[in-house]
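WP5 quarterly update. Target: Phosphate ABC transporter substrate-binding protein. Source organism: Pantoea cypripedii. Length: 262 aa.
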Amino acid sequence: MTKRLSLPMYDINHTVTEALIGTLAQLLAVRGITAKVEWHSDLLPHWRDRDLLLSQTCGYPLVKLLPEVQLVGAFQSSAPGCEGLRYRSWLVVRDEDQALSLADFRGRRAVCNSDDSHSGYNSLRYVVAPLAQQGRFFAETHFSGSHRQSLAALRQGRADIAAIDCITWALLQRNFPRELAGLTMIGETPLCAALPLITAAQTDSDTLAQLRAALTQLTEDERYRELCAANLIGGFATPERAFYDEVLQWEQQAATLGVTAL
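Structure tokens (predicted):
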């Protein structure tokens, strides 16, 4: 049976993403694993699919919504702001607000990609929680659907601040710098666990081992160095699932300070 393969989370330059996932599919085929590359707009059902061979999700859905999936590993990123298997978000505002601190955004408008995003929602809630009053900090919080749409909302004056995944920012800076025009960073979130690569609960141990072998070859073989660099991938590692507990701890810490939502 053909299994499903996707890498949806950093599809900024689609040509580059296609080359990456196509190469991975070839490395799997050599190992006797047939994978169908798919592109989904509704990701949660895809991640829950019994035939999911490999995809990349966010740490927040992993700990909140995907208890049954298996953790394959995670990419190490070479993007500024990343360290080892951890990444962070930049706090992004319009240039006109570049002299302000996070505390100055009390009562203003935030924009997030979605409420199940660590980088755009959970991390922002975590850093504003100590500044909140009676569980609130922002006057409004809007949801855009993606980091790119959040940046558009900032540029167009429909929101005032957003937490943007540092890898997304770096890929946009490289491929579509106009989308960052007029925007600047006034701060950052702490480091947290990088986006996990997952497979279905039904994937057997031999296939899981082959997945990890293919991902290791992809990130270590000299033939694919340029391809990985174009995707800001610097390595692959296999942390334990408990590595992602810190994502949930951020939610819990904000809740202890009275902030359960933005």
